[in-house]
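Q: What would this chain look like folded?
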Amino acid sequence: MSEGWVEDGFGAVADTFAENFSLFPELGAAVTVYAGGRKVVELWDGEAAPGRAWSAETVVPVFSCAKGIVSVVVHLLAQEGRLDLDAPIGTYWPSFVAHGKESVSCRMVLGHRAGIPVLDKTLTFDEIAAWEPVIAAIEEQQPLWEPGSTYEYHGHVFGFVLGEVVRRITGQLPGAYFRTVIGDPLGLRAWIGLPAAELPALARLAEADSRPAGLDPEHLLMRIVTMNGALEFPGLDVPHGWNDPALLGMELPGAGAVASATGLAGVYAASITGLDGAPPLLSTATVDDALGEVSSGVGFLGFDGGARWGSGFLLDSSFRPTLGPRSLANDGAGGQFAFADDEHGIAFAYTANRMIGHGDPRASRLVAALPRTGTK
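A: My prediction, written as structure tokens:
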């Protein structure tokens, strides 16, 4: 039986969470919901690691949910007047513009339109962890298409480009800056670069089999998600795999976040709906800006996966149903999902350590169980 609690009116979420454990091969999982800035659902169940039960403190790799954390930081800098999302990135990072990147803006990166979804240079794990070699490779990279003309998922490059802009403006890497301005002040259990002190609370991922079917390692999509094979996907119990503290402890801002369900939901609540009576970190005008569709439909690789992108966030779609047109979301490999909706006043996160691939319905079933009215 699930542990935690549910406020009246959200019982369907608890029922669905319990059903997920009977319908799917769940190992351990958690779901948290905020309504009007108040926590109204906090549930967990199952096993975090062999011999260790999931708890309210358990954290798990949430992969590309990192993009939501980075995007919040970027929009906060724009709101403060320190960053123009539509200005050339060279305004902040002059050496970025080489090899045809003069027009690339942060907005293009946020919408996956910058033309640099993958790097030509293959870096080692240690070089990726060192940050600067990746930045040098980005500077040397020529776009695969005319920036802004089409889109394709910028898996890891998304985080490094935006993260370097954050570093040049603030003096801190994006994960460190997030902790400085949001994570630490609000006590949120979400990190890009997991501290060693949090390792005892880390869940162990299992049965990762979300590799896109039929793609060999040289396929562009596999190069995007593995940084040309330097990182395994979905590799878990391999050197530098996704259960390795060395990987989870470094700044990998495109896909390397680690969080509890409550920590991840708290990031969205604090940013978009407000947390515990405080006003949201992002203004309505900033949320409006993030909600504008930047990319959808057929992309560079020639297929339409159904996703719609705003500026750094997934928008409501058949690919990722949320609560409607005011929802901003991000998902992560294996089933992780988080979003907030300022119209309904809801922030939500689901985390799990049993990775399920394409078509995983666990989080979508929980979202469908949320009440649609009376929550703001």
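The radius of gyration is 19 Å.
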